[in-house]
Design brief:
Elements: H1 7-20, H2 26-45, H3 50-59, E1 71-72, E2 78-79, E3 82-87, E4 100-106, H4 108-112
Antiparallel strand pairs: 1-2, 3-4
Helix pairs in contact: 2-3
C-alpha cells in the first residue's frame, strides 16, 4: 500500500479498510485530507464564505496523515512532499499491501515548482 509511510498513514489505511473492505489510494487520502482541511478552515472562521475560508486555508499549515507542513500557495496549489516509489520484490514485502518502498522524497517546492505567473489567481 502506498499509505505505509508512517503510523498515521497506516492508521488511516486501517480505518478506511474497516469501512470499505479495500485499501485506500493516494487520491482517496488526498481527498480526505482536503475535505478535513476545508472543514477545519470553515470551523475556524465560522462561515462558509469562500473568500474567508480560502484566506484561512492559505494561512494555516496542513498537518495530517497525508502531509506534514503542507500549505496553500498564493495560486491555490497545495504544496506538500511527494514520493518517488518503487514496487518491492515479493521477498521484500512483510505483510499484505506492503508493495512499495520510497526511492526519493521530494519537498513540496521541488515537487510543484515555482509560481510561473501563468495562473490568473497568482499575485502579479
Amino acid at each position: 500500500m502506498v499509505l505505509d509511510l508512517n503510523p498515521d498513514t497506516r492508521a488511516f489505511a486501517k480505518r478506511y479498510f474497516a469501512k470499505m473492505n479495500k485499501e485506500p489510494t493516494m487520491n482517496q487520502a488526498a481527498y480526505y485530507s482536503a475535505t478535513m482541511s476545508y472543514l477545519r478552515a470553515v470551523k475556524a472562521v465560522g462561515t462558509t464564505d469562500s473568500d474567508r475560508v480560502m484566506a484561512e486555508l492559505k494561512r494555516m499549515k496542513i498537518n495530517d496523515m497525508f502531509t506534514s507542513g503542507g500549505y496553500i500557495r498564493a495560486d491555490g496549489v497545495m504544496i506538500h512532499d511527494m514520493y518517488v516509489m518503487q514496487v518491492k520484490a515479493p521477498q521484500e514485502s512483510k505483510y499484505p499491501w506492503d508493495y512499495y518502498k520510497v526511492v526519493k522524497k521530494m519537498n513540496g517546492e521541488e515537487a510543484f515548482g515555482p509560481i510561473t505567473g501563468l495562473c490568473p489567481l497568482a499575485p502579479k
